[in-house]
Design goal:
The protein is 45% helix and 14% strand. The chain is of the alpha/beta class. The strands form two sheets. The protein has a seven-stranded parallel sheet, with helices on both faces. α2 links the parallel β2 and β3. α15 runs antiparallel to α16. The longest helix has 20 residues. Bound molecules: NADPH dihydro-nicotinamide-adenine-dinucleotide phosphate and magnesium ion. NADPH dihydro-nicotinamide-adenine-dinucleotide phosphate binds next to α1 and α10.
Length: 411
Amino acid sequence: MQALTVLGSTGSIGVSTLDVVARHPLRYSVFALTGHSRLKELVSQCQQFKPRYVVVTSTQSADWLKTRVPVETQVLSGSEGLAAVAGDDQVDVVMAAIVGAAGLEPTLAAVRAGKKVLLANKEALVMAGGLFMAAVRDSGATLLPIDSEHNAIFQCLPESFVCGATNANLNANRQVKAKNSALGIDILGVRKLLLSGSGGPFRTTPLDELSSVTPDQACAHPNWTMGRKISVDSATMMNKGLELIEACWLFDVNEAHVEIIIHPQSIVHSLVEYADGSVLAQLGNPDMRTPIAHGLAWPERIESGVAMLDLAAAGTLSFEPPDISRFPCLGLARAAVRDSGDAPAALNAANEIAVEAFLEGRIAFTRIADVVDVVMQGWSTSEPESLGAVQDADIRARALAREFAFGPKNQ
Ligand code: NDP
Ligand code: MG
């Protein structure tokens, strides 16, 4: 029996995680659940799973919850509460599924405590990849990617590959053979990683109509049901840009070795190209319960509730290169990962502000990339030595993004 904390249990990934967990009551027990605004949903999750702890962001929410959750569930609040349930001695597995920068600290707390960490929150790696992966190496935490593309790549890599290269053999080999290698995992015969993306709801929309698309249109993803922030990121393809950065950290490669390929059907979740010309892909229906179940049970396999893939019914699987003029965020993300240091954190922060402004109806869809571009053009990159430095970069980039999006007096 493994004890599980779900950070962000009320979100899309959180709900899918609990759906898989509920199918395996003898394998997993829920130690803690956390939420932010969807308090009624959090109460019903507590009634169903009877966790030891539930955590919310504010003390007001905690007071509201106290009279409504089962007696065996203790209510905690704030960042201390999140860190406590992420790193508690009794926890075996932590699902990191809080959206955005807010997910960084509790996810790091789980890593530092050496947990098995199922990483859905991509912003943690985008913002603080260097510090995050160093913490994985130091603590010996088991890091398993849940983002479907990275989970697919992980499944297509040899079993000897370990995220964060805690694998002693791989490390030893690497020191001898690949000191100046452009691609750390070339030791495994890997030549390239291919990240697939659907191209989102506006892949074929005439370019001159993009400035007038609405938040609801942007959130209507053709294949996946997701939270609103990541849905908008999929429509701009900033999501793929963030995933490129995420892939560089998880798999220890530089951006030139990660190719982005548009695959509108979202059946092939990503691919790995090997030196001998073999290309391995992971396929499945677009349902996050597959990578979640893979991470939960790894290295075993369990049932996830996802319907089996019917290739004959799927018919055609098509691929095309991304159009950079339609998706300028892809170029911005590549530039940020090349700049390295705190540039990806600035990119992420500017994007979060721009997406929020778009979702609130305050800026047009096409301005999202403009806001990020202006912030990045004025950004002077430095190497963040601490989490505080990352958070400082995050705050500065947010302020710049607000100023550009709304004007200095109207933030
Ligand atoms: P949702 O918006 O659906 O859920 C986000 C979760 O985070 C909710 O539980 C929410 O609480 C909580 N939350 C929001 N703000 C805060 C905060 N300030 N402090 C603490 N908790 C907070 O997002 P998704 O589930 O779609 O995505 C979660 C993460 O997984 C993201 O980083 C995303 O990029 C990544 N991801 C998601 C995929 C998907 O298919 N959905 C695929 C791959 C990666 P509440 O709802 O109660 O407000
Ligand atoms: Mg993804």
